[in-house]
Every structure is written in C-alpha cells, then in structure tokens.
Amino acid sequence: MREFEIRSGKANAEEIPEEILRAFTRRGIKAAAMLAWGEHCVECTMPACFASCDLYEARSDGKCRRFLKGMEKIAAPDSDAGYLTRITFKPWGQLWSPGSSRTFQSAEKWDAAYRALAAGIRAIPPAIGAGRIRPARGFYQACKAFTRWSNRKNALAEAECFFIQIYNPEEESVAFTLAFGYEDGPPGAPWQQGFTIPPGYHEITVPLACIRMALDTNRDFSISFTPNIEDAPRTVYLGLMDFVSFDQPYADQGIKCLVWDLDHTLWDGVLVESDADQLCLRPGLREVLEQLDQRGILHSIASKNHAKAAIPVLERLGVASFFLHPEIHWEPKSLSLQRIRDQLNIGMDAIAFIDDSPFEMAEVRQALPEVLVLDALNAMQVPWYPGFSGSETEESRNRRAMYQSEATRKERLATGYASDFEAFLESADMQLTILHPQAEHIDRVNDLVQRANQMNYSGRRHTRAEVEAMLDNPDLDLFLLDARDAFGSYGKVGFCVVDRTRTRITDLIFSCRIQLKRVDRAFLCWLLARYRSAGEATVDLWYRPTERNPQCRELLESLGFSPQASEGEMETHRFTCSDTLPVESLVTIRDEPGIPT
C-alpha cells in the first residue's frame, strides 16, 4: 500500500526507459505484508515545523512535500506488483511505514481492494475537509492502523525476509539507510544498515532472522528508508518494498562455496583505478568471511582484474588464505564459476556468487541458472540466509584446511606421478578408520546425510531425529568412516547403515573429498569380507540412480554386485558371498572397538 494512490500523480510508462521497466521482473512472491508506505521527513515536528522550516512545501492536505513530485506510479505489468514507484527525494525526505512481518497469502487481492478504495478517495476533491482533517489523510491513517493490526495477528504467517527492488537511474551511486525501530520505545533504531546503491537495478534482501537479532518484531515497530543526501534531489525507482515470502525459498539449497567479486564487493573501490595500498575491506566483511568459514562454507573469487595486482592486496588485507582456487582474469565469470566447481568437485547448485555489477549478475544467471546469485548490497546479511547455515562440526571448521591439503595432493600428483596415479596413491599412505558412531557424532552424520550428493547411494535424506533413532536400533549396523593420508586428515568422510535382518546396505554415503581415492572401494571390500565371515550368503545394497551419482553404479559393477528387482526408484544390487571377494590394497583399514560383528 503506497500513499501515491491517493495523493500523487502517475507517470507515463512510455516515457520510462525500457531497461528500467525490463529490470523489474517477477520474482514469484507467495505472500506479502502489505506495508503502508508514506512520504515523511526525518526531522518532522509537525505542525510547528510547517511555519518554521525553510524546506516546507505544502501538498494538498497541508502536510510537507518531501518528494519532488510525490510518489509517482508507473504501470509495469511484468513486475510482481504490476507497477513501479518513481520517487525524487529532497533533503530530509524519507519513506516510512508502520512495521509488520506478518504476511497475507493473497496479497495481490488485498492490494487490489486497497487500490479500488483509494480510487474512490482520490475522486473526492481536495477542498473537502478542514485543515488536516481530510478524507485522504483519514484513509492513510486507516491503512497504517491496518498494518499495525496485522502485526499482532499471530494466525498470519511470518515473512522470510524484508525485500526491496530498486533501480538507480543516476550515473553515481546513492546511499540509503534502512532502519527498523520501535514506535513506543526510546529514540534510535535497534537495527539499521546503510546501503550504497550503484547505478542500475539491485535487490536488497534482509532475512527476518537477521532483523530479529536486534528487534522484537512482535512489538509495534516502524521502518524507514532514507537517502543520505544534503543538497541535490536524487531519483530512484522502486518495485517491491515489503516483508515477503517467495514461492521458492530464498537460498534454500545448501551452499558449499560462496564466490566473491572484488571491486565494490569485497573491498571498496576499483583496483585498476585506485592506489592498491588504499583499498580496504568493506566494513564487517572480515567477520562474514570468518563466520561462514567456521560453518564449513568455502570461499573463492571470480573477479575481472589482474591476478598479480589483486593477490598482493588480498595478502595485505589478511584474507588471502580464505580463498580457494581464485579465478582472477578477464574472462566471463560464468567460466570462472565452472572452473571453481571443477576444482572443488561440488555441484553447481552448491555455489553462490556475489557481485555488485548488474551485468555480471545477469550473465551468471543466464549461463548458470543453478547458481544462487546475490547482490553485493546483501553481503552483511549472507550468514542469515537459510542456505548458508552450514554446520558446527569439527569437519566443517576444518573444511578449508582439508581442501588446501587436497590442492597439495594434486600438485604432488601433477609434478611427481603424472603418469602413474596408483603409484601416487601408494605413496600417499591412505588410511581408513572404521568407527561405530556415538551420540557425539550426530552432527557430522547429519551433515553427511543432508549434504552429500555425488556419492550418496540411496539418496535418502534422513532427519536428525531419524539419525538419532538409528543409533538405538538393535537391528542396524552403523559405520562411520574417518580417512587421512600423508598430507593430512579428511575427517569423517563416510556413513553406512546395514539392516541386519536382511543383510542389506540401506544407506551408504561418502564425502566427495575422497572421490577417486579408493576409500569407497576399500570400505565395501572390507564390509563384504566381514559379512561373509559372519556366514551371510548374500549382501544387498540399495541404490537410487541420479544425475550426480553414476560412479556409484560403476563401482558396484566392478566389485561384482548384480542388479535385482527394483522397488520404485530404488534399485537392489546383490553380492553373492560365494563369489570371489574383491580386495583393495592401496588403502590401509583399521577398525575401532565397538564395530558391529
């Protein structure tokens, strides 16, 4: 709900540059909060200021005009709201609304009803009424009351985030402050952040969890969006500006690597245009790097720069060690992301990319639609996005070191064993320890179950409660695999569940870190030998084929498993224990006490 419906004019869409209208595409909004945005002043002391302030300019209801032409409505049928708002802010002008994080599933219907009522109010001549007591003012007050009412309705669903679509048509960036504060509390905003909007289209996404770190949204609160200008007016175009939930949850996939641009993203300024010694990290980003790193989320770089100039800056800033396989050159960033994916051996849908350039973001979105693309304006909020929760296990905290050790392995292989991979594996002294998982391993087992894709045989995603129940089930044999070699530890890299009532492997999961290192083969050879020694005639295994795990089927075939009848999407593969047992000599296996026999 915006005040322009009753007080401001409309702009002809044909006069708006096509690139602006085209930028506001539909994002798929499931629900919105219906905020009541209005034109306000940062220093308002009305009505006394109407007579004392040199900036006072009367509008139809006698209040002060802080936007040059008010809130101009522009038809934009391809956008979520069906319209855009053009605002030219004058000094001290701000957008303001009562706050509500409660959303309406049919927000478009509520908005249509609001516009119909507003059209009737708008048709009433401005002369009707006395002083500030006018129909338009009364209607806007009712809208604000509706917003406050909705925030108290616990039956309404909570939003995922606060979301702004904004286009800066100027040639220079413009700085805004977004603030959330209590209406009945002391002055000041418990949550506020500055956003410098570069030219072009951008999206600001603040997860509700981030706001709630400082603000209790169950109390009456307000929201303001204020440009930091002192003299000349500044124009922006706004699309959605509301608490929302998306049809597809924002950043819902588990992100394993965040790839950073450099200029105006990781640091302020442009390297090729600046004194490299004067470049600084954007405020707060070191903490973001550290926080995600502790959760096991890797960092890399895709930047159009000269690597010989950029790397020394990263080293001077003390963050170079965070970034694995940086791609710093002048090729398309989509190619850089593909190379990073290949180096890390993860899925493209496990990568997020953050950049300040609308062009670069659009190029990656078009070439790699699986990648989560983030506007650099949101860098400080990234740790609160659902897909960036990572985990708190020891393996997660050491994940970057494990990948750095892997880089050393690859370098050793390339320089000393380029033509003999088996000789390299033998020299690497690969060791596999087989453990019986205990309660302290739950976090890591849950991490493997939820995140592994390429080497997940059954593809099943057990909940944490289901994993905990497995530990107490006497009919299940559970195995947790820990691997290391001469270059360092891989951590807990595998989990296996065997249903003893049928001698069937129902879950077999490995981290992609051990791919091609014979660990999976060595474990299955050990497992088959164990059950044959126990007198079992056959060992079955559940396998659900996906686009990501065809190598699992190849391994089963090489070990002598044969396919049996399928159960829905799940294939059963059987090893007959009277057949010759496969062996794997390049991995040393050690089993801990407590392993099922």
Structure description:
The chain has 597 residues and is α+β, with helices and mostly antiparallel strands. The protein has three domains: 4-246, Galactose-binding lectin (Jelly Rolls, Sandwich), CATH 2.60.120; 257-388, Rossmann fold (3-Layer(aba) Sandwich); 416-591, Gcn5-related N-acetyltransferase (GNAT) (Aminopeptidase). It has 17 helices and 28 strands. The strands form six sheets. An eight-stranded mixed β-sheet has the order 26-27-25-24-23-22-21-28, sandwiched between helices. β22 (476-485) and β23 form a beta hairpin. The radius of gyration is 29 Å and the shape is elongated. It starts with a helix and ends in a 6-residue tail after the last strand. The mean pLDDT is 86.
